[in-house]
Amino acid sequence: MQQIDTPDGLFHDGSPSTGELGTIVSADWLNSVARELENVVTGLGGSLDPARNDQIKSLLVEKLASKHNAVLTGTPVAPTAEVGTATDQLATTGFVSKAIGKNTGLPLLFPLWCPNRAAIPAGYAPADGQALSRSLYPEAWAGIAAGNVPVATDAAWLATPTERGKFTAGDGSTTFRLPDYNGKSAGSFGAVFMRGDGMLSAGADGVIQPDEIRSHVHPLSGRTYSALSTGISNGGAGSGVNGYLVTVAGESTALPAGGVETRPLNITGCWVIRLFGAVVNPGAADAAQLATEVSKLGSDKVPFMAFLGANQSLATSGYQRLPGGLILQWGMYSIASATNVAITYPMAFPTGTLVAGAFLPSFAIPVSTQAWTASGLSVYAGSNVTTNGVWFALGK
Q: Pairing state of beta strands 312-313 and 151-152?
């Protein structure tokens, strides 16, 4: 656009008394102004209308206020920068919301103990070992792929309960898998506590240590005895502390007291993992809460693979792991007359046997189950016939 061609760049009136001429406006200058105004109108999406003299104002109101008003009111919109942008670009409400959501509270993929599974906060998912969509949680998947958390192969995760404190790449293309801190997946040891990575720990991030009791002995007071038979206690003749030192044998128990694990005083809740921050909602639905609800649905669903692979052995002597931790085992055995037969399970129960039994094809041949442990059972047949039978065991 041209400036008027006068010494001071201003328009001047002429003076008849002095004979001074007024500023002469050239055709070039007028054409320059006309082109400038035309470009404003067309650049704002309008077209020249010789019957109107308010086009520039109307178009500016429409563009800046998102609706036609006599004044600049309404809700102006602007491009939203990516979180992390550090320039003099104006920050929109969307930018501020996402920035606050990204940097408030726990970092992505960090665990949190939630007191109520039914009220998991938006942005979190239960750590139940479920597979989730990479496209639904892109930032979480990016963190997993970058190695920000312990990662195992999905095959190792499914086959090895000690690997279930890790994330996986899921099916390798569309999903990823969360750790099972809550002990919800079939075959998992149970809900876990968390500890540091130093002395007495597993020594590797994400590895789950099964429960155990610290090795110890119990000196018992009493007189000197002769040799003891193998059973709940064993040993030879002699004297110990005030008499005889007794060592508890193997998996036998002296009293019926106790449970299926060794644990401290605790309170039940739900481990959850942060998967995303704030979501800018384009409509009435709360997208953040919807994503959290989807993650909960994934944890409630029993995956088909929970029954397959390392979770089953469909042989004459085999086993089947069920969701929830129950394991079924079965097999065949051969027994001679009036003898005990020790049967070893195809796999040891991680916790122990719940119930077991043995059967023979003929009811005329008496058979009884003598005892069972986490790794097998003992069967006795009171008959002079050598025969084959079947056994069955339930455990966890």
A: unpaired
Pairwise pLDDT comparison (243 vs 96), residue with the higher score:
96
Q: How many CB atoms lie within 10 A of CB 97?
A: 17
Q: Is 156 left (phi over 0), alpha (psi -120 to 50) or beta?
A: alpha
**What residue ranges in 122-164 does DSSP mark as E strands?**
124-126, 131-133, 151-152
What are the tokens at 382?
């009171």
Order of strands, sheet of 124-126, starting from the edge strand that comes earlier in the sequence: 111-114, 270-274, 124-126
Report yes or no: 381 and 348 within 8 Å, Cβ to Cβ.
no
Domains of the chain with bracketed CATH:
111-210+263-306 (no CATH), 212-260 (no CATH), 310-395 (2.60.40.3940)
Q: Tell whether the model's pLDDT for residue 78 goes beyond 60.
A: yes
Token pair for residue 37?
């105004």
Beta bridge partners of 367: 381
Q: What is the DSSP string of 31-56?
A: HHHHHHHHHHHHHTT----TT-S-HH
What is d(CA 76, CA 63) in angstroms, rounded to the nearest whole number?
8
Question: Which positions ≥6 away from 288 have C-beta within 8 Å?
Answer: 122, 123, 276, 278, 279, 281
Query: Please, what is the average pLDDT of the chain?
Result: 80
CA distance 299 to 129: 7
pTM listed for this prediction = 0.50
Quote the CA–CA distance of 208 and 21 in Å, as a whole number: 97
Contact call for residues 367 and 381 (beta carbons, < 8 A) = yes
Q: Pick from 238-242, 250-254, 259-263, 337-341 the range whose average pLDDT is largest.
A: 259-263
Given a contact cutoff of 8 angstroms between Cβ atoms, the answer to whether 212 and 166 are in contact is: no
Spatial distance between the Cα atoms of 95 and 83, rounded to a whole number of angstroms:
6
Containing 62, the helix (H) or strand (E) segment is helix 55-65
State both tokens at 52: 């109107």
Between residues 16 and 168, which one has the greater pLDDT? 168
**Would you call 100 helix, strand, or coil by DSSP?**
helix
Q: Are the C-beta atoms of 250 and 238 separated by less than 8 Å?
A: no
